[in-house]
Amino acid sequence: xxxxxxxxxxxxxxxxxxxxxxxxxASFDMMQVxxxxxxxxxxxxxxxxxxxxxxGVVKTFLDLRLLLSDNLEVALRHIIVxxxxxxxxxxxxxxxxxxxxxxRVRVTYIVDTVLVVMLTEIISRWFSGGEWHxxxxxxxxxxxxxxxxxxxxxxxxAPNGAPNRAPQGAATxx
Length: 174
Prior knowledge:
- The radius of gyration is 22 Å and the shape is flat.
- The protein has helices at 12-20, 30-62, 66-69, 72-102, 107-127, 132-154.
- The two termini are 33 Å apart.
- It is mostly helical.
- 70% of the residues lie in helices and 0% in strands.
- Helix 4 (72-102) runs antiparallel to helix 5 (107-127) and helix 5 (107-127) runs antiparallel to helix 6.
């Protein structure tokens, strides 16, 4: 029997549908069809993210050869940017898994993802010798995202940091 956060026991109406064919409109629950469709689509997304993450790790590992052929500083910069990009992909995976388990998207996870991407951009600009106004813009964006992150944690609808579980099939965006 399948278990886990991506599998839930089908309801009576879905089991009847699978056993006897299309149910009558009285027993047909569109929210359950929606929920199963979303879960199936997100399962495909999770598989895609895991494949991309694995490919990124392999690429980063293969970039270690730059340590032997290129300037050490250039090679290390390239590896650091690759690693930070992989961390952003991990944050996207974390957001997707949270939606599968909680039925909602958490603002803090999205802001964390964007913060990781922005920090990656700052580091890449820093290594490439960016101009001061580029750093000022990126710094302003990071300060704004930090304020959003603090507000999202402080004014979260979940009491005492406990996860606020939405009803199954319901999608909320905070």
